[in-house]
Write a structure and sequence with these properties.
The protein is an alpha+beta fold.
Length: 186
C-alpha cells in the first residue's frame, strides 16, 4: 500500500471564507511548471508541500471567483473532471463528468448560476508522484433562496506533468483518502 503523507492547512483570514482574492490574482506566477517540478520530489517534502498547498489555494480562489483564465492553465486540455462521487455538486446526477477545458467552464458556470461558493482548504494528503488530494469545507449560498449550507468535500488529483489530467470530487474526507490510495496503487 502507498504511504500517504497528510498535513493541515492554516486558513487565510482575509475573506469571510478564508480564501484570498490576492491569491487568485497571482495564479500566472504559480505555474503548472512549478507544480510539475515539485511533484517529482518525495511525498511530503517541504518544497512539495509548499507548492501543492499554494497551487490549491490559487486554484480554489480562481474557481471561487469564476476566473477561468487563471484556473485553466492548471488543467490538461483533455482533463476529466469527475463529480460522480459527490451528491453536493451533482444534485443527485450520478453520471456527472466533464471533459476538457470546455467542461471545466461548463461546470463552473452552472455552479455560478445556482450558488455563490467558497472553498476553505483544510487538509492535504500526498501519495507521491502526481497524486494528491485536498479536503475543503465548501460554503455555499443558493442564489435564489439565499439558503446557506456547508459540507466537507474531497478533491483528488492526478497531475502528471504538472497539469491536472483527472480530478475526482467526492463527499467527505474518507472517500477522498480511499480514492487517493486506489489511484496511487494502480
Amino acid at each position: 500500500m502507498t504511504e500517504i503523507v497528510r498535513w493541515k492547512v492554516d486558513a487565510i483570514p482575509e475573506s469571510p471564507f478564508g480564501v484570498s482574492q490576492r491569491l487568485a490574482d497571482t495564479a500566472p506566477g504559480l505555474s503548472s511548471k512549478a507544480l510539475g517540478r515539485a511533484l517529482r520530489l518525495p511525498a511530503g517534502s517541504r518544497i512539495r508541500r509548499r507548492v501543492i498547498t499554494e497551487s490549491l489555494r490559487v486554484g480554489l480562489a480562481a474557481a471561487g471567483s469564476h476566473d477561468f483564465e487563471k484556473l485553466l492553465p492548471f488543467y490538461d486540455p483533455a482533463v476529466v473532471y469527475d463529480l460522480t462521487g459527490s451528491r453536493i455538486f451533482t444534485l443527485g446526477d450520478t453520471t456527472a463528468s466533464y471533459h476538457g477545458h470546455d467542461g471545466i467552464r461548463v461546470i463552473l458556470a452552472e455552479m455560478a448560476q445556482s450558488m455563490a461558493m467558497a472553498h476553505q482548504l483544510e487538509e492535504i494528503a500526498d501519495a507521491g508522484g502526481p497524486y494528491f488530494a485536498a479536503l475543503t469545507m465548501v460554503r455555499s449560498v443558493a442564489n435564489f433562496s439565499r439558503i446557506e449550507f456547508s459540507d466537507e468535500v474531497s478533491q483528488v488529483y492526478d497531475a502528471r506533468g504538472g497539469t491536472i489530467r483527472h480530478q475526482w470530487t467526492l463527499d467527505g474526507w474518507d472517500a477522498g483518502i480511499e480514492k487517493l490510495a486506489e489511484i496511487a496503487s494502480s
